[in-house]
Design goal:
Blueprint lengths: L24 E2 L8 E6 L5 H9 L3 E6 L3 H13 L6 E4 L3 H7 E2 L4 E7 L17 H10 E11 L2 H12 L4 E3 L8 E2 L9 H8 L5 E7 L1
Parallel strand pairs: 1-5, 2-3, 2-6, 3-4, 6-7
Antiparallel strand pairs: 7-10, 8-10, 9-10
Bound molecules: S-adenosylmethionine.
Length: about 210
């Protein structure tokens, strides 16, 4: 008998994803919480665990494109008894945000150290770009916040230019009219943030408020 060539299983094929078979997804049905916060690209998830402690009333939703990390972090949140109010879905955040409803339903969006792409051919992977910002503006409630941080000065300048041109966002940094924040005020840090701090790298933080 000829041996059959079995297709190798796709790693983390059972990673949690947004409900299929429906385009629009009510973000309030994904987690329990008095309000909703989103994290884009949580990676190994450190921020979500710490944020769950520093904001115990918040419902937290992460979108992580790497299935491995979405699976591992979502499972760890559940193991720690946080599964009802903190989830990570294996999704490209740029597509996932466009599916979320209703408008003005999210209190905060966190984007920690995005866009680790340097090669020109990888530019299409850029997360923080105009369409992504439009979806965030649509989802944020009035007074809701967008927090972005990076350790790359030129990236911070580019984000500031892009976000500063969005009419429905107001800079909310340390000084009036500026989006720059010297510290992270959220009582929770991302893994990359901790590493940058330990390595003595500068961290550029921007915060905006939805009108
Ligand atoms: C440089 S790492 C930073 C990880 C984490 N935010 C931190 O600060 O430690 C960027 C993260 O964003 C994720 N990512 C990149 N593009 C994404 C996308 N389109 N949607 C969701 N996650 C994405 C990567 O897989 C990676 O986990």
């Amino acid at each position: 008998m000829q041996p059959t060539l079995a297709t190798p299983p796709r790693p983390y094929a059972d990673a949690p994803t947004l409900p299929s078979g429906q385009e629009a997804v009510d973000v309030r049905a994904l987690v329990r919480g008095e309000w909703i916060e989103l994290e884009i690209g949580p990676g190994r998830g450190g921020f979500l665990f710490e944020r769950a402690r520093s904001a115990p009333a918040a419902g937290l939703v992460g979108f992580e494109v790497r299935r491995k990390w979405a699976s591992v972090v979502d499972a760890r949140l559940a193991e720690r008894g946080l599964g009802a109010r903190a989830r990570v879905f294996a999704e490209d955040a740029r597509l996932a945000l466009a599916r979320l409803t209703p408008d003005a339903s999210v209190r905060r969006v966190f984007v920690h150290f995005p866009d680790p792409w340097w090669k020109k051919r990888h530019r299409k992977r850029t997360v923080v770009q105009a369409g992504f910002v439009r979806e965030i503006v649509r989802l944020l409630q009035p007074g809701g916040e967008l927090f972005v941080q990076t350790d790359v000065a030129s990236r911070a300048d580019a984000y500031e230019e892009l976000l500063g041109s969005e009419k429905l966002l107001r800079a909310k940094g340390d000084d009036a009219g500026s989006a720059r924040l010297s510290d992270n005020p959220y009582g929770a840090q991302s893994p990359r943030e901790r590493r940058a701090q330990a390595d003595g790298l500068p961290i550029y933080r921007l915060r905006y408020e939805r009108y």
